[in-house]
Structure formats: structure tokens, C-alpha cells
Design a protein that fits this description.
The chain is of the alpha/beta class and about 550 residues long. The chain is built from 22 helices and ten strands.
Length: about 550
């Protein structure tokens, strides 16, 4: 009889100890100061289906949609999330974003402002971070209503922005009705395949972790039974406590020996308050998110912003695109680090160690020195070619020779001399020209277009300014194509968003190299453009005269070094 009682107590205790999966279902319809969203409350009510499937459901099912209630439910969900094996978050309502982060606004939110938007909202990025604790079994559903209404204040955008989705998290986006149906008829149904449902729907799309099949409630799963109350028997309780201690120690040793997610989850299911529960949670989180240990090791380095920029610059010099040199390690930088690690026989974690930083620095220093030597060799060769062309063309003093030199070397070492000589020749021609010829030429110069110069050639085929007109026509035609190229290069330069300090570093480096950038004042003028073109030509970069990522990476690395 005693053994029977012990067995009954242990079975009962095990059923009570089973961890619950977690869901956060927030659907908002009635906004106090913003346009309402049709069907938001129906999404919240559909969360009851997940409750029947064994999930612990938090959210707005009881109709409380103000910021205090919604954020409180979100925090309760977050507290349970580390112990869950499956997680679902569904957010329906009005959204705003700032280009980097997105928020679901609560019912009492006023028109959102950039510095206070987080006070009455739920962060989509925070939801994804919590879901990342159960990779492969985590679904985020975002439902918004199609509308032309602009609800965002200055500095914000209406709707959901671009998302950086953590590994293992599936994000489904669509309209409110489709999200409700997905939750009620697929996610919460045993055997319901989320991916198949999205593919069949015209109103839903999936991104992030998109496997061939994703089922959160296994087929045949039954609604959890209500636990049987534990027997109130002092003798049985005492014996059970001794046995429980013994069983817990054995279960912990087995979990450590196996060292898998399943083994630690099984331990926590049986002993959620056990002596080793804290260690089990930490190890389970580490196994579920293997990057966490590498991130912690990088965080321990406490790299200042300039050290992070230096890493990005060095990676750029080595040919790994970080998509910016801003000290922020986003997907571009992490990808560049992983690629470098793969090419250097190092674990591809995407995170830095002191050794990794040292090796990147050393390689970049060697590569920068190689590039600088190659650039100096090309510069010497270019100057020699420049001088040779000058001797053949410009040094003859003829207008045709001067123009031929400038066509080949617009930023050459004799370019200013050639332009001055041409200007002097034009003045001489002007003095010698007949009055009618001079008047017509002045009118065409004022118009300064191809049609005007063609008219001059038609009316004065032997005029004093004939050669000038032909040269200007060729120059204008060439400038049309150059303007197209320059507009794209200018847009790329603008995207770099370089501050005046960085621009002064660029100019200082150009001046140090003897490339004559003009005043070092953080403002790019014609002299600076010419110096940039010469710098790019010496390094076999696209010689546009505009700054791009490759030019800036090498130039700033040299300057800082």
C-alpha cells in the first residue's frame, strides 16, 4: 500500500512540475486617439484556442488594452519564457517604426513621438529577442490593417519597419483577419502546419526561419488534464521528500552527462524548483542560443566605439564588406567577421576575441602597407606617363595639343598650366577677332549649350573661335555621360554620411600624399574632387572623384594608423 501511495504521489508531483509553453496574444481594436483597427479584439479572443492546447496565454483576452495592462501581460510572458519549449506571440493593431525598431501601440497611446513612443507600446524587437530562446519553435505573427492614415509623428514612420529576425524565429505578417484564422485554425490545432497555411494564403507571408514544415502542437496531443491534488499524509510526504532528493540528484547527473536541450528540459519538467534548476536554465539557454557565450566573451572586452570602428576599417581593407564604419556591429559586420573567420580556419561565430582582433589588425597593417607601396609605384608610373604626354602634346603650345593633354589628364600635374595657356590663347583670339565674330561668340558662350556652339560654327565656319566651339561641344557631350555617373557616385557618397571630422581626415591624408586637395576644412570642393580622383587612380579604384566605401576605408585606415 505504501509503495502504491508513493507511486501516486510521484506521478502527481511530476504532472504538477511540467513546464507550460507560453503565448502572448495582443489584439487592439478601439484606440482613444488613433484610428481603430477592425478585428483586433477577435485576435485576442482567438488566443483561447492556445490555452486549450496547453499554452500559458497572456495578453488582452479580457479586453484590457491600455499600456499598463498590455505591458504587464508582456512582462508576465517574459518571466515565463525561459522555461518554455514553444512560444507564440501575436500582435495586432496600429504599428509605428523609426527605421530600426517597430512598436505596437496600445489603446491609450497618443500620436507617437520618437522619444516617448516606447512608453505606451510593445517593442517588436523585444518580442523577437524573447522568442529566440526557443529557436525552431517560436512564431511571431504581426497583423496590421491596410490604411492610408499616417499616424506617426515627426521622426517616425507608420506601420512595421524592416526587421532583423533572430536565428530560429519565424515571423508571419498579414492582415488582421488572416492572423486570427492562422492562430485559431492552424497554430493552436494539433498537427497544424504554419508554413503550409502561409503558402496557401494570399494575405500572409513568412520570413526569418522558414522550414519545410512547422507544427507547434503535435498531432494527437490531448488537452492537459487537471492535476490531481497531492495526498496530505505526513509519512508519505516525508518518504517522498527523501526519494525526490535522491531522484533529483540522479536526474541532474543524467542531464549533465547527456548535455542536450532535451535532457535539461526533462530535468526542469520534473524539478522546476530543484537545487540545480538555475544551472539547468543557464545551460539550456546556452544550448538553445550557442552565440550567447561568444557574445558574452566579446562584451567582456568592453570595446570602445573607436576600437569597433577600427575593426570595421581593417575588415574593409582586407576586402570584407561591413556595410559601414560606424562602430555598430549589425548584420553586415557580423557577416564580415564570420567570413574572415572562415577564411582563417577559426570557428565562424561572428563575434570577436582579443586574438581575433589582433590577427585582423596585423593582417590589415600588412595589407595597407602593400596597398600603399603598390599605389606609390602606380603613382610614379602615372606621373611619368603624364609628363611624357605633356611633352608630346601640351608642351608644343598649340591649342589642339593643350586640349589633347587635358582630355587625357584633366587632373594632371600640368593641367593648371594647360588651362592657363588655353585661356591666354582665347584672349588673343578675342583681340584679333572681328567685332561681329566676337559679338556672336559672346552670345553663344552665354547660352553655353551644344545648339548654340553649332549655330556659331554654321554662321562663322572660319571664325576665330571655331576650335573653341568644337572643343566645347565635345566637352559638353562628354559631361552628359559623366553627370549620369557622378549622380550615382554622389548618392553613394551621401549614404556614407561622413561627418566634418572624417572629411578633414580624408583631406589631411590627401594633403600628406601630395595630392593637392586644397584647404583642410571638412568641405569637399573642386580641388578635393581632383585629389580624390588621383588617389583612386593610384589605387586602381573607380576614379569618380567621389568618396565610396572602398576609398574611405583605405584612406581612414591609413590616416588613423
Amino acid at each position: 500500500m505504501r509503495h502504491l501511495l508513493l507511486s501516486s504521489v510521484l506521478i502527481c508531483a511530476a504532472s504538477l512540475a511540467q513546464a507550460q509553453d507560453a503565448a502572448l496574444i495582443v489584439g487592439i481594436t478601439d484606440y482613444a486617439a488613433l484610428p481603430d483597427v477592425t478585428g483586433g479584439i477577435e485576435v485576442a479572443q482567438a488566443g483561447a484556442a492556445l490555452d486549450k492546447a496547453g499554452f500559458r496565454v497572456f495578453g488582452t483576452g479580457r479586453g484590457q488594452t491600455d499600456s499598463t495592462a498590455v505591458q504587464g501581460q508582456g512582462n508576465a510572458f517574459a518571466a515565463l519564457s525561459p522555461d518554455a519549449d514553444r512560444m507564440v506571440v501575436v500582435l495586432a493593431g496600429q504599428f509605428v517604426n523609426d527605421g530600426t525598431r517597430s512598436w505596437l501601440l496600445t489603446a491609450d497611446s497618443p500620436q507617437p513621438a520618437p522619444f516617448t513612443v516606447g512608453q505606451r507600446s510593445l517593442s517588436v524587437e523585444t518580442a523577437m529577442m524573447l522568442l529566440a530562446q526557443t529557436p525552431g519553435s517560436a512564431v511571431l505573427v504581426l497583423a496590421e490593417q491596410d490604411s492610408d492614415a499616417d499616424i506617426a509623428g515627426p521622426g517616425l514612420l507608420s506601420g512595421i519597419g524592416d526587421l532583423t529576425i533572430p536565428s530560429g524565429v519565424t515571423v508571419v505578417r498579414g492582415d488582421v483577419a488572416a492572423a486570427r484564422n492562422l492562430l485559431r485554425d492552424v497554430i493552436a490545432v494539433p498537427g497544424g502546419d504554419v508554413i503550409a497555411a502561409v503558402r496557401k494564403s494570399d494575405s500572409l507571408s513568412a520570413s526569418g526561419f522558414v522550414p519545410g514544415q512547422l507544427i507547434l502542437v503535435p498531432a494527437g496531443q490531448q488537452t492537459p488534464a487537471t492535476p490531481v491534488p497531492q495526498a496530505n499524509n505526513d509519512v508519505v510526504t516525508g518518504v517522498t521528500a527523501d526519494l525526490a532528493t535522491m531522484f533529483e540528484g540522479s536526474a541532474w547527473e543524467q542531464a549533465r552527462k547527456t548535455d542536450t536541450q532535451a535532457s535539461y528540459a526533462a530535468y526542469l519538467d520534473r524539478f522546476p524548483d530543484g537545487a540545480h534548476a538555475g544551472d539547468a536554465v543557464k545551460r539550456l539557454q546556452a544550448l538553445r542560443n550557442p552565440d550567447s557565450a561568444f557574445k558574452q566573451a566579446e562584451d567582456a572586452l568592453k570595446l570602445p566605439i573607436e576600437a569597433r570602428r577600427a575593426v570595421q576599417r581593417n575588415l574593409q581593407v582586407l576586402g570584407f564588406d561591413t556595410r559601414g564604419i560606424d562602430g555598430i556591429f549589425g548584420p553586415g559586420t557580423r557577416g564580415a567577421i564570420r567570413t574572415w573567420q572562415g577564411q582563417n580556419n577559426t570557428a565562424q561565430t561572428g563575434y570577436l576575441t582579443a586574438d581575433t582582433i589582433g590577427r585582423i589588425n596585423d593582417q590589415a597593417a600588412r595589407r595597407a602597407a602593400e596597398l600603399e607601396l603598390q599605389a606609390e609605384q602606380r603613382r610614379t608610373a602615372n606621373r611619368a606617363a603624364d609628363r611624357a604626354d605633356w611633352e608630346k602634346t601640351g608642351a608644343t603650345g598649340t591649342a589642339a595639343g593643350l586640349r589633347a593633354y587635358l582630355d587625357t589628364h584633366p587632373d594632371g600635374q600640368f593641367a593648371d598650366q594647360a588651362r592657363a595657356a588655353l585661356a591666354e590663347r582665347r584672349q588673343q583670339n578675342r583681340s584679333a577677332a572681328a567685332n561681329a565674330d566676337r559679338v556672336l561668340w559672346d552670345r553663344m558662350v552665354e547660352a553655353d549649350n551644344v545648339a548654340a556652339y553649332n549655330r556659331y560654327l554654321a554662321e562663322q565656319p572660319d571664325g576665330a573661335f571655331r576650335d573653341d566651339a568644337v572643343a566645347r561641344i565635345a566637352q559638353l557631350q562628354k559631361s552628359v555621360a559623366a553627370e549620369r555617373d557622378n549622380s550615382a557616385a554622389a548618392a553613394a557618397e551621401q549614404q556614407l554620411a561622413l561627418d566634418p571630422i572624417s572629411l578633414r581626415l580624408v583631406e589631411a591624408r590627401l594633403q600628406q600624399l601630395g595630392l593637392n586637395p586644397g584647404a583642410v576644412d571638412g568641405r569637399i570642393d573642386g580641388d578635393t574632387r581632383g585629389a580624390i580622383r588621383r588617389y583612386q587612380r593610384d589605387r586602381q579604384l573607380t576614379a569618380s572623384g567621389f568618396l565610396d566605401q572602398a576609398t574611405v576605408s583605405q584612406m581612414l585606415t591609413d590616416a588613423f594608423r
